[in-house]
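seq as requested:
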Amino acid sequence: MLLSARLSGAHGLVEINSRLRADPVLQRAFGRGLCAEQSVVQRTLDACTATTVKQMEQAMDMIYRQHSQGYQPDYRTSVQLLDVDMGGLPCGSKAAFTTKGYFAKQRNRRGRQLGRVLASHYAEIVVDRLFDGKTQLTKALQPLLHAAERTLQLDKAKRVRTIVRMDSGGGSLDNLNWLLSRGYQIHAKDYSSRHARSLAKSVLVWFDDPHAPERQAGWVTEAPTAYVRPVRRIAVRCQQQDGEWAVGVLISNVAAADVFELTGQSPSQLADAQAVLWASVAFYDQRGGGIETSLKGDKQGLGSTSRNKKRFEAQQMLMLLGSLTHNTIVWARRWLAAPRSDWTQSGCAPREPVEKSCSLLELH
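struct tokens:
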């Protein structure tokens, strides 16, 4: 009932009565003839336990493997791109595991944190996990990647062809070395701003960004001896209003040829160090249209921050159903766009197949 309501646009559980239960036609579109009252759904959520959540996570893995594109790419010919990030979920102070933490533009706010792994080539959520309000990506990264490995069944051969891209929250030396030791390719931002400023001093030549005049980048020349595998580093600085430079450092071991392909640029520029530099910066910038857009879109379009349960397990179940809603919408685009044998070759399709197409929303 809750999944049907969320797919129908409901932002609050109480809307199950007004949006779904009051619309028999909509219920039939989801393959159901009856609808539970919203209070029954509320009590069902409140009855969830850690075992229930674990079972739901296992069911989500099965559904993802059956319907997703992210589970079955050809790793021999293409790379898998996983974006990892965290998003704040503000809630009341009496909710379980709610603590003060970082919530954008909301100082002294309490809540929980949502950790997400996104298969960015397909806009599919691989893993969503719930943490307390003070947990940040530096601590959540390894649990999130372990969960993603189970969902995607990533063995060593697949990890070698998988890129993990993330911001500075996960860019600590321990996390990056852990990823490198497991065979992943990384494209991340250094965790320490102080370390970034120190590394920027080793840049011999700064190049102006052709698209953003206030930004410059250059190759870090200091040897990356602290990493367990070879990486290259790029210092990027932006001039602030007070004239000072804000500096960050990108750390990557993604092959330059792959970077050009992933950013849609010609590989003929492989010998041009400046072109490789700006392609690497552009590849990091693409996070804005990937996982950051995913998190913001779910908050605005699916109302992921408008439903809060006091019990942690109930909130986990809500979160997982939200992930399934997101993925179902992504998959439905492909299902509805697929050619059907019962459609006519020209002109308008008959009425019966149009009605049958609604059954594509059912989850078997």
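The two ends are 15 Å apart (CA to CA).
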